[in-house]
Amino acid sequence: MMQDIFGQDTSLTDAAALENWNAVQMGVLSHAAAAPTHLGALLEAAPEFALAQAAKGMFVLLLGRAELMQAAHDAYAAAKAAEDGALPRERHYISALGAWLEGRPSAAIAEMETVLRNHPEDALAMKLSHAIRFILGDSAGMRRSIERVLPAYAPEHAGRGYLLGCHAFSLEETGAYDLADATGRQALWMAPDDAWGLHAVAHVHDMTGNSRAGLDWLTGREEAWAHCNNFRYHVWWHKALMHLDQGQSEQVLALYDHEIRKDKTDDYRDISNATSLLMRLELEGVAIGDRWEELAELCANRTEDGCLIFADLHYLLALVGDDRKLEAGQLVQRIHADARRGASESDARMATPGCGLALGLEAFGEGNYSEAFGYLATGRSSLQLAGGSHAQRDVFERVTIDAGLRAGRLDAVEAILNERRAQRGGAEDSYAQARRALITAGRGAPGAQSVPAE
What we know:
Oligomer: single chain
Order of helices and strands: EEHHHHHHHHHHHHHHHHHHHHHHHH
Structural class: mainly alpha
């Protein structure tokens, strides 16, 4: 029995295997591109290490791809086969993977929280609980989980900086912007490669309408995310959002072409960066050329995926953006079919908020703005269940607002803008300011009528 870098007992007995396991864990915390290489080396040398097999399965599930489900099942089978040699802490990881494969990610979180009650210093369990809650849109749960274990992380704990990065993000997502900013900066000071903490501070600048300071924050800190897996594209996405808020569309398109879509993958996280950015640009009247086409080609092949409603909605953005009515309709129908099936927690999210949002996006693409606004405005109350962050979900808020403006629902749109401002601590970005100007102009137009908010 050997202890890992966080002081946790493991069932490993080989020093080289332990070194790879430590590298895997630190790589997961820092979103390092090298983490899978270390995991592969570990499992080749110690395939009987059940904890690593279970972790591999959960890493695969976080990718949200139907074609990888078999790989997750295979990892679970390998973990179960080696379970007799696993320690009690390690067995909770196996149970977490099994629950998630059964369509119960909330039960997987519960297993991780059981680990953290007995082993609060287990930074991998902390990060996995955080990550699964993130895809479920459970920001309050993220914050509670981090704050329960925070006292156990002494300054010398190898994961403390990354824990603070997760804390900063959960603080931002729950509206504690000043504390999130300070905590994220401390995280990066303790762990200079903590891209998650760095990006938490970027989120603060987005939510407080301070894009100029956000650009200052990110510029010159590129080394903090250069080592990352595809998460680096997401940090570039944040920088592009800040340029967009500044009205610098040429810089946005340059970042899109050279960083955000540097690698033309169909990973849903990369697709979400790209589609949400192009939609924002189009709503601002920026010509984007044929950029929708590349995304739509990829997304047309994922209409039957059905792993995450967050992914499906972004695939739908690409299909709507490229006017792929047939494939968009197929995706909307599949979301409704999954909702009717109701066999898993994912299916429940296909139903709420998925069905209404999908119909709203489809109607928006067809120019039926009144219908689109009806569906999208109704879906706002459950939008957080789609997962992701406030900044990521804001593209759906913007489509809702613009649909309402085009439908003449000025009072209702103003009410949404007021709620959006309140969520942002009273701050407004250039997008909101421009829409308020449109409302004022619309009310002043000859014959204009306001339709009351419902």
